[in-house]
Design brief:
Blueprint lengths: L16 H11 L7 H14 L3 E5 L2 H11 L7 E5 L5 H8 L3 E5 L10 H10 L1 E4 L2 E4 L5 E6 L10 H10 L3 E5 L7 E2 L2 E2 L6 E5 L12 E5 L2 H10 L4 E3 L4 E2 L10 H12 L1 H19 L5 E2 L7 E2 L6 E4 L4 H14 L22 E2 L4 H7 E3 L8 H19 L1
Parallel strand pairs: 2-3, 2-6, 3-17, 6-7, 7-10
Antiparallel strand pairs: 1-11, 4-5, 5-6, 8-9, 8-15, 10-11, 12-13, 14-16, 16-18
Helix pairs in contact: 1-8, 2-8, 3-4, 3-7, 10-12
């Protein structure tokens, strides 16, 4: 077996990245203005079949901007996935609003739309001026479904509930570039969306993100806020509080090159997922990654669940075994509702987030994985399962 260390998710730099970066450096326009920012935004919007895209420095900045543009105000509440990386919850708090944490669906691992509907119907009051939480008296202004792991939330149901209860939909598509739901790109269902191009994502700008919307007013507002809310660039007049969130031109050059190869990246992700799915289907102590209905996943991180007695303890031991034998693996994110900074916020009937976290293992999912790499991952995983049984 190969001694090569297999990382969890590393970028594939194999196209025009060097060429475009050199072109950018040759112009001298390396900061937050330049032709590559414009080209990257237009190409990304075209790929997503969206009207407008605004490139920013990272996914968290995209979320913060999207929430502000959607009209989330201090002292309001926002429904958000509980099983997620912490960024969307922090972005809500940056707005001085309150997150209301919603459970994960055990079948899809995405936001549980049944519980969202139950919460809105039973715990909230719909008035002419909005939807109000009966428990806190605060207005609920938005919902943030998070498309985790390269899968997709049930956006038809979420959008229908949002329209019924007068909520804005802010999609967190940080892990969802290329995912389609009912034939449509995630990130284009709601009022506005946020994407991430961190180094471990399907495509990268090194560090970066994007706000996507079909609303020109929203796009203009996002561009305004992320450029320090500058009303008169020559006189430096500011009539609102803005943010230094715009993506540097040199990073947009990398992003443009990555977009050119995105479809080949997605094909490779799906091939790797198919390999894992077929290789592990007979392992009785493993549940493979779900395939949500109506979703065309990208399998950003292919993730399995360890099942059976003491599955949580065995999951930790298996991850350690993989690491010792040259395979990087990790758990899912610790659910938000019981981490110290967030325990004070309302969490609605959380049942499934913790078991999913406790039993999940994310396996190597880089675009550049070879068949030999995948075979090694599966072989070491099987050895780990066997050693723990002994």
């Amino acid at each position: 077996m190969s001694e090569k260390f297999i990382p969890l998710s590393e970028p594939q730099i194999s196209g025009n990245e060097w060429k475009y970066v050199k072109e950018c450096l040759d112009t001298g326009w390396v900061s937050s203005a330049g032709v590559f920012v414009d080209r990257f935004e237009k190409t990304a919007a075209s790929y997503l079949e969206a009207k407008y895209a605004v490139a920013v420095v990272n996914g968290t900045a995209a979320l913060h901007t999207a929430l502000l543009v959607a009209g989330v105000k201090p002292e309001e509440e926002v429904l958000v996935s509980n099983l997620t990386f912490v960024a969307p919850v922090n972005a809500i708090l940056y707005c001085r609003a309150y997150p209301v944490l919603m459970d994960a669906d055990p079948k899809t691992w995405q936001m549980d739309t049944t519980k969202v509907e139950q919460f809105l119907e039973e715990e909230c009051e719909l008035r002419e001026d909005g939807c109000f939480n009966k428990k806190t008296g605060r207005r609920i202004s938005a919902i943030v479904p998070v498309h985790i792991l390269g899968l997709g939330c049930a956006m038809d149901k979420i959008v229908a509930l949002a329209r019924r209860f007068l909520l804005k939909v802010v999609e967190d598509a940080a892990e969802g570039m290329g995912v389609r739901y009912q034939g449509r790109h995630v990130g284009t269902f709601g009022d506005i969306a946020a994407f991430s191009f961190n180094g471990n994502k399907v495509m990268t700008t090194g560090g970066g993100g994007m706000v996507v919307t079909a609303n020109k007013q929203y796009a203009d507002h996002a561009r305004y806020l992320t450029t320090q809310a500058k009303d008169d660039p020559s006189e430096y007049i500011h009539n609102a509080i803005g943010y230094n969130y715009r993506l540097p031109n040199v990073l947009a050059a990398i992003g443009l090159a990555q977009l050119e190869k995105l479809e080949s990246f997605l094909m490779k992700k799906r091939e790797s997922a198919k390999f894992y799915q077929e290789a592990l289907q007979d392992e009785q102590e493993i549940t493979p990654m779900p395939m949500p209905k109506d979703c065309e996943p990208t399998f950003w991180l292919y993730t399995i669940l360890v099942t059976g007695k003491d599955s949580g303890k065995r999951r930790k031991a298996i991850i350690q075994y993989l690491h010792k034998n040259g395979v990087e693996a990790r758990s899912l994110w610790h659910p938000i509702h019981n981490m110290p900074p967030y325990v004070r916020f309302q969490a609605y009937q959380i049942e499934h987030s913790m078991p999913l976290y406790e039993n999940a293992i994310c396996l190597p999912s880089s675009v550049g994985l070879t068949t030999e790499d995948l075979q090694k991952v599966v072989a070491v995983l099987r050895q780990g399962l066997k050693s723990i049984r002994a």
